[in-house]
Amino acid sequence: MREVVTGRANRGAWVAALLTAAVIVLALAAPALASSSAAPESASSAAPEPVPTTLTAALSAASVAFGGEVTVTGALVPAAEGEEVVITLSGAEMGRAVTDASGAFELAFTPRRSGDVAAVLAADPGVVSPAQKLAVKPKASVSHGALVPFLKSTFVVRIAPSAYDGVVVLKIVHRKVVVGTYKARARDGRAVFRVPLRGVDGFTLTFVLPADGGLSGRSLQTKVAVRAKTLSVGAKGPYVKGMLTGLQRLRFRIPGMGSTFTTRVKDSVMAFQKAYRLKRTYVFNTECWRKLDGAKLIKARRATPATHIEVDKTRQILMIVKGGKPWGIIAVSTGATGNTPEGTFRIQQKHPYTSSGFGGTLVRTMGFKGDFAIHGWSSVPPYPASHGCVREPIWACYWTYDNSWVGETVYVYR
Based on the domain organization, do 132 and 143 belong to the same domain? Predict the structure, then answer.
């Protein structure tokens, strides 16, 4: 009987232990079960976040010439049909558009000034698109008159609006070098330039219009070609005047500024051809134009005294030099046998006219050594042809005579 009682008592203790363990496990699991059962209730009760209303705007072009049209396109997000959108330029209304079913809108307008373009929702002015920069530039075109080398040509820039009154800057490039910069104020829709094109072949002209009156600045470029024209004795017209203008810039003595290629003009052409070692033809051709185009003033051999005369027997030219630079250049003809003396001399006497031992009259004679003199003569060929004197064209000898004095230094060299 005792053993039976003891076994039952042991089984009761074991059951009690199992129950105790089960209670502990349930106690530990209770919080997790509570949170998992509460989570769905919390998620189902949270309100959805509202989608903000926005506008976009884009321009068909970031810049436009005055009078041109610009189109603004954009969209309302979230999409809503029938919403009115106001397009503004720097705060001023340019027009209105209505959204379609997808929220898209479009408006074309003609701006008259530069500024920031934006789209504004009419029903809620607080809804504004990011601003888009728009540049409105003057409308401009260029025309020109006749193009003659070394003479002034007229270039007209026509500008809209006519109220534009900025100072237009013109830059001229020739053979990759800037050869001139000029300015002209626009008035009544035009800026007029009278500028010389000193050379032949291509020129690039760039006109810069600065910002003015609410308009952005702009530039426009035009290219022109100035053609060369062959000239000889008897030719007439503006090309002759252009040639003489170019020769005078390089200090060649000319008989006067005219438009006829006279026998006197050919002496100036010969002086140029001699000085720059071109073919001595008396004909001014394309080669001459291009040399005249880029030529620099020839250099004097001597710098002192400040004013003196130089006779170059190799090139057959005479120069009056002032301040170390040629002041005037003419063609001459020295001794046929090379007998014109070389060295440093002084003018010993001056006579309006003298007679020659070889016959004929010497005009405006200036003796510099014994019987050797500088004087005018009717024939001055491209080569040495005198008996030893320095022959000058008669029309040019007066200039040399009037600008020289007894005692002036004369250099003669090869």
Answer: no
